[in-house]
Amino acid sequence: MFLENKREEINNIDANIIELIIKRRYLSDEIIRFKQLNNLNIYDRDREKFIIESLKREYSSRLDPIEIEKLFTEILFFSKQTP
For the segment 44-65, what is each residue's pLDDT rounded down to a tens digit? Predict the structure, then answer.
């Protein structure tokens, strides 16, 4: 019973993570469309660096900063794919 309960909790967390990634992608798509309409660069290296560094500062006591950077590099890559 313990194992099943913990696995169910993990399954729920996984589903929540996917839902949040979908929401993030939707918002990113809106930003990409805005930038395209206004002839702005889609890629903003400074913004991405700021996001990653902020998250590393905030969560480095609970997660390895290298893992945070790897994870968010992938999320950011996924988020900036043109719709």
Answer: 999 999 999 999 999 999 999 9
DSSP letters for 15-49: HHHHHHHHHHHHHHHHHHHHHHHTT--S--HHHHH
Domain boundary assignment for the chain: 2-79
Q: What angle do CA 42, 24, 65 make, to 5 degrees?
A: 90
Q: What is the DSSP letter of 80?
A: T
CATH homologous superfamily of domain 2-79? Chorismate mutase (1.20.59.10)
**pLDDT of 2-11, one tens digit each?**
999 999 999 9
pTM: 0.84
The per-residue DSSP string of 47-63 comes to HHHHHHHHHHHHHTTTS
User: Is the CA virtual torsion 25, 34, 57, 69 positive or negative?
Assistant: positive
